[in-house]
Amino acid sequence: MSTTKGLEGVVATTSSVSSIIDDVLTYRGYNIDDLADHASFEEVIYLLWNEKLPTQEELQAFKKDLASVSKVPDAVIEQMKSYPIEKVHPMAALRTAVSNLALFDDEADSHDDEANRRKALKLQAQLPTIVAAFARIRQGKQPVAPKEELSYAANFLYMLNEKEPDETSVKAIDKALVLHADHELNASTFTSRVCVATLSDMYSGVTSAIGALKGPLHGGANERVMAMLNEIGTVDKAEDYIKDALERKVKIMGFGHRVYKNGDPRAKHLKEMSRQMTEITGETNWYEMSVKIDEIVTNEKGLLPNVDFYSASVYHSLGIDHDLFTPIFAVSRVSGWIAHILEQYSNNRLIRPRAEYVGPDKQSWIPIEKRK
Ligand code: ACO
């Protein structure tokens, strides 16, 4: 038996959802650069789930369907109020609330294609409602009900702030959602596929994916990037801070990637957004500090920024609480998880690899009274 640590380079399945080939990311064959520049997030969800870009009519109908199921069952919101709010991370709250959604969906365990499509819509539409509701509950405020006439991105900001957002903020969030929507067999997507390959339900698949995304080596990195920027404080302190951290073998959050060795194609879009957004807020120090860190890490270690690095200063510029950065990732990536879950169901086989046993062998039984 041969093993590959972390399954590096192992091709575990075929997929037609997204690809990373020669450092180029595509969703259903469309280059991420084109999608980032031209597509709305709703168009991207449609593309991921239906293998084609929508026509104008299809897009309008899809947006309407999505908005019509964005309200979360009252019982789920009420239970969120009983979480130990002051110590619960929003990713933990999201994981629990999404699992809870299944209890209020009569079709939760159905494997009917139409039922799965309905669950897909509900999950996609309700994740932002949950994230925004939790953010408000912990501020002692009432959750804001979704506004069906708003776009997905605008509605999310509206539910967070109880005020309709400006166009620049909506465009920034929309683009960030497009950039995070899918990414081949990343850890959380693989988790969701392993889960549903047992023929478990879609809610279980998404709940387990949220758990995987939460970790700092995956989606949890974006929040930690902002913590690092805050800790450094000013651009002039960046060099010493990073060099010292690298010397101590501390991982710099937002850098490196298992697959990309010549750079993450999403990072340049977020870098430009960070430049623009910090100019608007007048807090260009976050962008300047990020660029400085980028230069140092690249020079010292040859590591390039990934999707999480510049997204931190973008979300900060939008006034979003730092611990909501990873939940925003989930609000986007649920579109990809669902596309992969549907693909897994359509051509399923249990995912059950092997482990090479390296533990003790041929042990003799020891009665309990003789054990030390
Ligand atoms: N900072 C400093 N050193 C790093 C970093 C980093 N961010 N990333 C990798 N390295 C170093 C490792 O210490 C290791 O060095 P060594 O060979 O001297 O021990 C070498 O580069 C290889 O690193 P691995 O951790 O083995 O690479 P792997 O492919 O397993 O990990 C990962 C990829 C998890 C993304 C890693 O680069 C990392 O931890 N980055 C920081 C966390 C992060 O930004 N995660 C988000 C990834 S993108 C996403 O999931 C959305």
TrEMBL record:
- Reactions catalysed: oxaloacetate + acetyl-CoA + H2O = citrate + CoA + H(+)
UniProt-annotated catalytic positions: H257, D308
User: Which residue stretches, if any, does this entry annotate as coiled coil?
Assistant: none
Q: In which pathway does it act?
A: Carbohydrate metabolism; tricarboxylic acid cycle; isocitrate from oxaloacetate: step 1/2
Q: Name one GO molecular function term.
A: citrate synthase activity
Supply the alphabetized keyword list.
Answer: Acyltransferase, Transferase, Tricarboxylic acid cycle
Q: Which GO terms describe its biological process?
A: carbohydrate metabolic process; tricarboxylic acid cycle
A cellular component term (GO) from this record? cytosol
Q: At the top level of its lineage, which domain of life is listed?
A: Bacteria
SUPFAM superfamilies per UniProt: Citrate synthase
Recorded hits in NCBIfam families, A to Z, give:
cit_synth_II, PRK14034.1, PRK14035.1
Family from the record: Belongs to the citrate synthase family.
List the protein's name: Citrate synthase
Q: Which organism is it from?
A: Salisediminibacterium beveridgei
